[in-house]
Design goal:
Structural class: mainly alpha
Shape: rod-shaped
Strand content: under 5%
Number of helices: 31
Radius of gyration: 53 Å
Distance between the termini: 125 Å
Number of strands: 6
Largest sheet: 4 strands, mixed
Helix content: 55-70%
Length: about 750
């Protein structure tokens, strides 16, 4: 049965999302995803540049290993000495090429034929030329010539064997056949190449002018000392085949004449050029001889306590390459994951610090890209720098440290430098000593750099970092087991020289660093604050009252900024330009108006407000047109924040109240567009600008009135939320108020009224 009463609905309690849920929502934002993607791309770029999927080669020239090094894997290396010995043997075994010119043999045969004819012409032994016959006569065993009777008998037999024309024809033919082998292969007295210059048993012979027709012959076939017996035997055989009577005796007489003449009938001459080419080809055909090292075998020549030479470094490099090549895909994956994990950890560390301490760096996409790009470029230069040319990796690392200090605060620069040092050391395969040296050098440069007000400051920073690098290298290397000697002193000197060179390079790069990171050093601010700047000159000409106001704001603002440790010089330069937009309509601003003339009397309050507010945008446009830095443009845009133009707002409110048909006045229409001050310097200048303008309205600017005025304006800005986006603390605001009051009191200090000079008659 129904009671007729409506059913109550259960109310659910909606709890706010937890931290994890809020984080997920935050990470899904497009701007957050974009920045995370940029960081991931930078990490991948570093991973590729450093070849993070494999361990780096840890040795460098001159390094002294503390102990002997053994092979981690089996590997082979070319044995240069053994290979060269094999090539020398190949050169020594090459068959040399000799050019054969048979002309001396032809001349020798013709000369022999002529002499034989001269012997056959006389009718008897008595008429023969005895000196000529002696050339054909052999010697006895005791070396004496045969007696005359025997010579007569030998001559008669010789003449009888060759007396007929047919006999002479057979003689010529036999002589030619006996010399045929020498005409083909040549004749030489001795080899014309040394033992280590070619084969000693064979040579290659080619006809003169025709190297392609070369053929191989044994040296014994062409050397006179061994070929003479062959010639004698061939003479006997050919004469016997020709049916010459007493062939052996005739051949003996002919050989007696030929033997001493053979040394003048050599036909072979070595071709050095072709032989050298053949030797080079033989050497090139020799396969390199390799030296094999087994696992655990001590690497030859690499001794503990001895500095590494170039040859030993090459040997270790081959072993390292073989070790890396032995990695399995799983090992490569683990190594890559470890490196990527380290990159992610470092990026999270730096990103968290920036998020909590300098969030503007993340908000500004250009600044974030500049930071990531400079970090990647630094690692790339470190990775590509020759490792054996001094210690050049210190130069890009110090340049990054100094640039980061100039662009950001010291703490962030130190954190970034430490992270990059770790990446660089792992990429180079270096150890803890080099990490300490890099960190010490970069930390000293970061500490010393401070405010740059002179062109020599960075050089002194480089010198200071060089001294730190020198002594740190000596101390850390000694602790690491490196012997204290000339090599270590040279190494430390290279580190020091690299640091000094980095300071010199940074001095030249400073203008580009300022433009790249959009920052200004004191040096550039001093140049920018020159009164001869075209914008300031134009401001003096068009709006002298505004210029005077800017000078006063610069003076009191600089002192206030210095009182809280902010950049007073930046405040001063920003104050010079903060009101340059007023020069376009100077007559609408009270400091430039003539006495009794106010153009706003004829304008509605809303229109007057638009004219007043427009000077901010006009000033920013003028600044960009004249390429003023963004830090100065920020002063122009932020020096009024989102404050209310009270005079015209109150005037509009009164007019609305007096008009029966008037509606409510929209306060937002009478506020500056902002943004609010984003830095301590901009906040200081907002107060300085406001109190300097307001102090001009004081009739009797006593110290108490000035102090009350400054406190009132500061409190109004504070309650209006103008300092919510800058890092000014209440204590710092109080310090600024005291400084401004003190400065304005000094400007409006009381003066002694001197009595008028009495007029004399």
């Amino acid at each position: 049965m129904s009671s007729g009463l409506p059913k109550r609905s259960r109310s659910t309690l909606q709890l706010p999302p937890g931290h994890f849920a809020r984080s997920l929502v935050f990470l899904r934002r497009n701007d957050v995803l974009l920045r995370l993607g940029l960081c991931a791309a930078a990490a991948v770029a570093m991973w590729l540049i450093t070849s993070a999927w494999r361990p780096a080669f840890p040795f460098r020239l001159g390094h002294t290993p503390p102990r002997d090094i053994s092979a981690r894997v089996e590997f082979s290396v070319p044995d240069a000495r053994a290979t060269e010995n094999a090539r020398q043997r190949a050169r020594a075994d090459v068959i040399c090429l000799y050019q054969h010119d048979p002309q001396p043999l032809d001349e020798l045969q013709r000369a022999l034929t002529d002499k034989v004819f001269q012997l056959l012409t006389p009718a008897s032994f008595d008429a023969v030329d005895k000196a000529l016959w002696q050339e054909f006569v052999g010697r006895e065993e005791d070396g004496a010539a045969p007696d005359e009777d025997r010579q007569r008998a030998d001559y008669e037999r010789f003449r009888g064997a060759l007396s007929e024309d047919e006999d002479l024809k057979r003689f010529k033919r036999s002589l030619m056949l006996a010399f045929s082998d020498f005409r083909e292969n040549g004749l030489l007295e001795s080899l014309q190449h040394e033992l280590n210059e070619g084969n000693q048993t064979e040579i290659r012979v080619f006809p003169k002018g025709n190297p392609d027709a070369a053929h191989t012959v044994r040296v014994s076939q062409v050397r006179i000392g061994e070929a003479a017996g062959t010639l004698h035997r061939r003479l006997v055989e050919e004469l016997e085949d020709a049916k010459t009577p007493g062939a052996e005796q005739v051949a003996g007489h002919l050989f007696n004449w030929l033997r001493p003449k053979l040394s003048h009938a050599t036909t072979l001459k070595i071709d050095s050029k072709l032989t050298q080419l053949a030797a080079d080809e033989a050497a090139e055909r020799v396969e390199p001889v390799e030296r094999k090292f087994l696992v655990g075998e001590k690497i030859e020549g690499v001794k503990g306590g001895q500095a590494l030479s170039g040859e030993q470094l090459s040997l270790l490099g081959t072993e390292h390459a073989a070790y890396v090549a032995s990695f399995t895909p799983w090992q490569i994956l683990l190594f890559t994951a470890a490196d990527l994990g380290m990159y992610v950890a470092l990026f999270v560390l730096c990103g968290s610090y920036i998020y909590y301490h300098d969030r503007r760096l993340i908000r500004d996409l250009r600044k974030l890209l500049t930071l990531l790009g400079s970090a990647v470029a630094t690692i790339a230069i470190v990775r590509l720098a020759p490792r054996d040319m001094g210690r050049l990796e210190l130069i890009p690392m110090l340049l990054f440290a100094m640039a980061a200090t100039i662009a950001y605060q010291r703490e962030l620069a130190l954190l970034l430098s430490a992270c990059l040092s770790l990446i660089a050391v792992l990429a180079l395969g270096a150890g803890l000593p080099e990490l300490v040296i890099l960190l010490a050098s970069m930390a000293s440069a970061i500490y010393l750099i401070g405010r740059i007000r002179s062109r020599t400051k960075l050089i002194y920073v480089g010198l200071g970092a060089g001294v730190t690098a020198f002594f740190t290298t000596l101390g850390v290397s000694t602790l690491a087991g490196q012997p204290l000697g000339l090599a270590l002193l040279i190494n430390a000197g290279w580190f020091a020289f690299s640091a000094v060179l980095a300071g010199l390079v940074m001095t030249g790069l400073l203008p580009f660093i300022e433009r790249l990171f959009d920052v200004q050093t004191d040096l550039s601010l001093l140049e920018l604050g020159d009164a001869a700047h075209p914008l300031l000159q134009e401001l003096v000409r068009r709006a002298p009252g505004t210029y005077n106001h800017s000078i006063n704001v610069a003076s009191i603002g600089e002192a206030a900024a210095e009182a809280i440790g902010a950049n007073g010089l930046l405040v001063r330069v920003g104050a010079y330009f903060h009101d340059i937009g007023k020069m376009l309509k100077p007559g609408y601003f009270i400091e430039n108006q003539q006495q009794g003339v106010n153009r706003h009397e004829s304008l509605l309050p809303a229109m007057s407000t638009l004219v007043i507010i427009a000077h901010v945008k006009d000033g920013a446009d003028l600044a960009r047109k004249h390429r003023l830095p963004q830090s100065v443009i920020d002063f122009i845009e932020q020096h009024h924040g989102t404050t209310l133009v009270e005079y015209f707002f109150n005037r509009a409110t009164r007019q609305s109240e007096e008009d029966p048909d008037g509606g409510s006045v929209d306060e937002s229409s009478f506020r500056y567009p902002g943004p609010k001050p984003q830095t301590r310097e901009a906040g200081v200048m907002m107060l300085a600008d406001a109190v300097e303008s307001a102090s001009r309205t004081l009739v009797d600017p006593t110290p108490a009135r000035i102090e009350n005025l400054v406190e009132e304006i500061a409190m109004k800005r504070l309650l209006d939320g103008q300092f919510d986006e800058c890092s000014l603390t209440l204590k710092e605001i109080n310090t600024v108020v005291e400084s401004l009051a003190k400065s304005l009191t000094a400007v409006y200090h009381g003066r002694v009224k001197y009595p008028e000079r009495q007029q004399t008659a």
